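Why does residue order matter? Because the sequence determines the fold. Keep that principle in mind as you read this record.
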Amino acid sequence: MIRRPRSPRNSRSRLLPSAAGLLIAATVGCIVTGIPLDQAGLAIEIREDGTTAEITATLRSGSGAALALEDGQSVEINDTALTEQRTGTLTGAVMQTDSYDIAVREPTRGVFRDTVASPGTLMITTPADGGDASLGGFTLTWPVATDATVTITLRQTLLGTTTTETFGPQDDTGTQTFTAADLQDFRQGGDLEIMIDRTTAPSMLNGIDDGTVFFLQSAEVAVTPGP
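Structure:
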């Protein structure tokens, strides 16, 4: 399971082919230049934490080589241009919102625009943070998202020993019931941390041959185990 930065506890909210015309693809090692962005492999990851959306975009040629931006090429989210951290990787951050406007600027083609909706803030609704959870069994609930998978982790540290149980990845149904058998390795006397990590299925970007966007979210509470 991939762990991600989490928001403060009170928040608990945890994105080808060859070039046409006069452009000629030039390959140097694993780096490719000269491919129009609408013909590139573009994957956008939007990681929401309840306040900020951190964005990582990867650009690849049809062969999978890193694609370097050319003059005039850019990828923008909500009017914020992503920065090329290294060849083939762009990053940026915007305020978390209900939807994100994506603009891919390709000087030989124009601007390709699309809007993607956030799956909504991920938060654990029951049990409440700081509340109780029975080791005889309890039900975890959160707002469901369409076309998403979740991984749920239970973790407890007692007397220097950490016990962890992981469930998933599995379809996001908005609920998970834990039985006494699921919880048999946990004890009273120390907080039980409950963490949910959610990943949405990739959706296609308008106008981009191989463009996708997906969301990553996480949420966490700590509860008191009881009988």
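Residues 1-29 have pLDDT under 50 and may be disordered.
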